[in-house]
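Recall the central idea of this unit: under ordinary conditions, the amino acid sequence of a chain determines the structure it adopts. In this exercise we apply that idea directly, starting from the sequence alone.
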Amino acid sequence: MSKAVILIIEDDLAIQELLTHTMSKEGWKLLFAKSGEDGLKILKTKNVNCILLDIMLPGIDGFKVLKKIRDIEQCVNIPVIMTTARGEESDIITGLELGADDYVVKPYSPKVLIARIRAGLRRQEEETVPSSAEVWQQGELKLDAARHQAFYGDKLLDLFATEFALLKHFLSNPEIVFSRNQIIAAIHGPDYPVTDRSVDVQILGLRKKLGEAGDMIETIRSVGYRFRLSE
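Accordingly, the structure predicted from this sequence is:
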């Protein structure tokens, strides 16, 4: 997606200049916002394909901005990558639970950041391409890939983009045990640098939203996870 539009919500002008320089060869259009409020205004008037979001911003912080982003209908499935100096595990968990697709701690390698943006754009693009099998169902769980909807019984599940991708992966590969690295590769592509803890947090969030069906995602000790068929 060479003509992708990337919104960068970052108040540090030096980082803005660095990103402008390092991303110049990618062919992306870059939009900049110095505060969360400015970023939200842009999102309500322009279509973007990926968002880079700092946490420590003037005015409302990045966590609050992320919550507001996910409340904007056209932004529900846009990849959001948090880029911040706050690298504590509690901050990373908070960001992922609020719906961030990724979390990059400063100082970061611009090349690594670009790789993560590409992965997010690739996932978004793949979701717009119809697959040969678009609907999966196990017990009360049903996922419609074409409509990007998932249900438990008659209840529409409010899933973040990564949670939806995880559920699709499990429903389409029942009873198969996957390591965390295999799950990461299936969702984000190969060689994608995400910690095991990040995978655990996102699966925990998915289990909570699945309610009683959350137990169908089984933890295989020292290995990874498996989606168990309903009896």
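The chain has a mean pLDDT of 86.
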